[in-house]
């Protein structure tokens, strides 16, 4: 286990450095000049050129690209992601302040999605080719097919505009900071993101359980007098391997869905900050968001890889 952990950590660090270099390169190749957007419209002529040069020098953008890269890479090694072009705050502080709301949104959605998907997938597998199976499968396909931004706008129209039972934006109402108010604001964004996650999970749980139920060890359990529920428990445990893989690959998908929903529901997370940075060509913030996402994905893949060894003894012994 320790050898596997060390190997995976070293490979994750190497992948992270490659991603960091790729993000820096892509941002520098992007069209448009962020400094031009920072110059006030009333400044023109020679004053505009002087102002632009001063701002460019302040952010170190007047240096050659290689010099900029090494300075940025040196800062990255110490946790310094630079400063925002628009606000002037440290990028790490901006992203850390927004990390909590995004983690709350994604974590709640993933947890609720799993709570819905596991029993629904088991029911669909056990009652294969019945009304229950067709209903669960149809609902999951529809939830995957409909774009999240459309569901978000529809939910706001129905529950916030027409019925007026749920808030349409933010984490708290004006002058409110209690847990009840937070939970009320979480219902729509978390519910929609959980629906999308559960729809994807259900298919994998169903197919995994069906595959395990058809194996010899399940028939052996039944032949030796074991109950169907006991056989189902063994089948569900062994089918979790595929679900762990799906969870690891779902994290970036969930984050992309969270970015969309954060815009729709004005949720003050990293996604909303990234969209604002993209609009303003705030490249340090964009790079920082990409690096945070890369770290999240690498950590999830590492946890998934180690979980294989815990759940399946065959993987542990082979290593």
What does this structure look like?
By secondary structure, the protein is an all-alpha fold. It folds into two domains: 49 residues, no CATH class; 199 residues, MetI-like fold. It is 79% helix and 0% strand. The chain is built from 13 helices and no strands. Helix 5 crosses helix 8, helix 7 packs across helix 8 and helix 11 runs antiparallel to helix 12. It is globular, with a radius of gyration of 24 Å. It starts with a helix and ends with a helix.
Name its key features.
2 domains, 319 residues, globular, MetI-like fold, mainly alpha, 13 helices
What layout of secondary structure does this protein have?
Elements: H1 2-29, H2 34-38, H3 45-58, H4 65-77, H5 91-126, H6 131-145, H7 148-162, H8 179-213, H9 216-223, H10 228-264, H11 270-280, H12 283-311, H13 313-318
Helix pairs in contact: 1-12, 5-6, 5-8, 5-10, 5-12, 6-8, 7-8, 7-10, 8-10, 9-10, 10-11, 10-12, 11-12
Write down the secondary-structure element order.
HHHHHHHHHHHHH
N/C terminus separation: 8 Å
Helix content: over 70%
Inertia-based shape: globular
CATH topology of the largest domain: the name is MetI-like fold
Question: Can you describe this structure in just a few lines?
Answer:
The chain is globular, with a radius of gyration of 24 Å.
